[in-house]
Amino acid sequence: MRVALLAAAAVVVLPMASFAQKPAGVDLSEMQKSSESAAKSSLATLAELAKGESGRSLGFSAPGEADQAVLKQPLTDFIVGLDALRAWQPSDDAKALLKPSGLIVYPVASGDAVRSSVTLEKEDNAWKAVAFGAPALTQAVTRTRDAVVGSTHVSASDLFQVRIPAFNLVFVGSLNGDRLMLTPVTDAPQYDLKAGATVAASDLFTRLKPEAEKDKGLPR
Prior knowledge:
The structure is a single chain. The chain is of the alpha+beta class. Mean pLDDT is 89; it is low at 1-19. The protein has helices spanning 2-18, 28-49, 54-57, 82-87, 135-152, 201-214, and strands at 70-71, 75-79, 99-110, 113-123, 126-132, 160-164, 169-176, 179-184, 199-200. It has one domain.
């Protein structure tokens, strides 16, 4: 009887593991685990950069605030390229447009508020900090992520960042079964996007395709 029960349990557990959500084949949990030590080390660099007047541009409102900074749940970064949007067809799998950028973004908080961020990239098998700051964007992304978690009950660790650089758009991405969902972090009325209002990626890509086909590479 004991063997039979164990076998039955295995039938339940194994299929759950096989359906783990990995956008573009990226293991979000592994990205966090492998980069966390380097991210923690980068806080000292951020505190040094935040000394003096530069602290405000990095998102800190008071001297020494960066010395108390802590890391929050990171977001693995993906991009959707202009050429991919041009080639997009409504019958295509929207997830196929996601391309890992190789970056992971750690929001940085002081007290109860997100103030700044640290962005890391893997170089020669080692994670290194490549950017600091971007307070307004970081606050918008984390605010949107919190809203998605609250409305869908998806774990924050299962969410990720999606950028469409050609259109200056940034989203919090999630997977709803087999569907890619995107929640814009700022309003973009020219594309009928409202901050916090989740859209199916397939619908958005269909909407953006004509714009991508007209795009001449000029700044927006």
